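User: I've been going back and forth on whether these two constructs are worth ordering. Before I decide, could you fold them both?

Assistant: Sure. I'll take them in the order you sent them. The first construct and its C-alpha cells:
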Amino acid sequence: KGYSEFDYNAVWQAIFNFATLDLSAYYFDIRKDALYCDAPDSLRARAARTVLAECFSCLTAWLAPILCFTAEEAWLTRRKDEAELPEKLVDTDSVHLRVIPEIPAQWSNAALADKWADVFAVRRVITTALEPLRQEKTIGSSLQAAPRVFLSADKAAALADVDFTEVAIVSGVTIETGEGPADAVRVEDIAGVAVTPQLAAGEKCQRCWQVLPEVSAHPDHLCARCDVAVAGAGA
C-alpha cells in the first residue's frame, strides 16, 4: 500500500519496526541458540533457516526501491550459493527484476498472534524478575537462571506447549499453576503471571553456555544436545 501511494516514509517505518522489533528483539534473540548450537540437520535449525530464507526474500524486495544498491548487493551475494538455495531466491539475476512477494493469507492468524502476545507478556515478567540479579551481579547472563513461573489456570492451559526455557533464554523454567508466593515478581499490567527468580543448578556447557546438571558428567563439559551436535559434525 505504501509503495502504491508513494508513501515511502510509511514503507520505511513498517520495515524498520519489523526488523528491529519482530525480528531482532524477538525472533533472532530467541532463535539464534538453535542456529548456533543445534545440529545443522535438526528440525528446529532447518525450520529457522527456512524462516530466514523467507525473510531475505521479502526484505530484499521491500527495500529494493529505497536502498537500491544495498538490496542489489545483498541479492547478488546470496545468489553465489545458488545450488543450495530455493528456487524463489535464484529466479532472477537482479533484485530489481523481481516483484514484491505476495504474503500467503494463512500467515495472518489472529488467534496465534494473541497467543504469542501472552507468551511475550510472560517473557517480560521473567526478564523483569531476573533484572535485579543482573544488577546485583548475582548472574551475568540469563542462562545462569532457572526461574519458577506461576501462571493462572487459563494461561497455563493455553500456553502448555510453549518452551519458556527457550523463549526466555534461560537454562530451565518450572511452570506451576497458581498465584505464586507473596514475594514473587509481578508486573502490574500483566495478570495471572508471577515469577520467582532462581539460579540454575549444574555446570556451564562450554558450547551453548546453558547451565545444566548433566554437564558435569561430560568429559568435555558439554550438555547432551551439544554432545550430539559435536558428534554429528565430526562424523
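The second construct, handled the same way:
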Amino acid sequence: MNVLIVDDESKARSLLSTILKENSAEVTNILEASTLLQGVDLIKKNKIDVLFLDIEMPQHSGLELFDFISIESVNFEIIFTTAYSEYAIKAFEFSAIDYLLKPLRPNKVKEALGKASKSLNQNQLQQRLLELKNSLSSDKFSKLALPVEDGVLFVKLDEIYVLEADGMYTTFNLTNNRKILISKPLKYFSDLLEHKELFYKPHRSYLVNLKYLQKVVKKEGTYIEMENEMRIPVSKEKKEELFNLLQDLQ
C-alpha cells in the first residue's frame, strides 16, 4: 500500500510515518509533502492508495485539494487530519469521509487505515467526495451518508421520517415505506441532525423529522403521529419544549 502524507509540520509527518511503519504491515511505501501543491504533484506522478491530508496549512488548505485535481481522477482513499475544524468535521461525518483529530493516536491511525483499506475496492469514493465538496461549498447538508454492507448509501434528509434506536443500531424509517438498519447508535445521528433542519428528539429512543409531523395527541401520555402513521412517544421532560418549538414554527 502506497501512502502519501501531506502536512506542513515536519514533526507531524514524522510522527504519522512512524506510527504507520510500526502498526501496519500493509504500508510498503510512504511519501511526504509539506504543501498541498507538492502533494498534488506527487499524486499525479505516483500511484497513491491512501492520502493523509492536513487541513490547516499555509497558502492552501487541505480542503482546497479539488481546486487542483478533479474528483473523477481520485482513485485513492483520503483521511483528513485536523486540530479543530468543527464545521469540516461535521461535513466529513455527513459524507462518510474519514478524519483524524490531532494529536494523532496510534490506535486511531490504525483503525482509520484499516477502514481505508477495506474501502479501496468500493466504487463510491467519488460520490462521497462530491457530497463533501458540495457540503463545504454550500454550508448546507442535504444528504446523509450511511454505511451499509455493500458500500455507502446516500439518503436525502427530506426522505427521513423517524430514526429509532435499536441497541447500538439505528433504524431509519424513510419515505415510500423503506426501512434501513444502520450499525451506528442513535446518539451518533442525533449529534449530527438534532437542531438541524426540523429534526427533533422527543424521546431518548427517537429522532423525528417535524416536516412529517401530522398530529400531537395529548391523551394516554403525549405522543406524536407522523404522516407514515408511526406513533412516537414524547417523554415528560420534553413536552413543554416540544409545544414551545411547534409554536415557534407556526
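Notes on the second construct follow. The radius of gyration is 21 Å. The CA atoms of residues 159 and 176 lie 9 Å apart.
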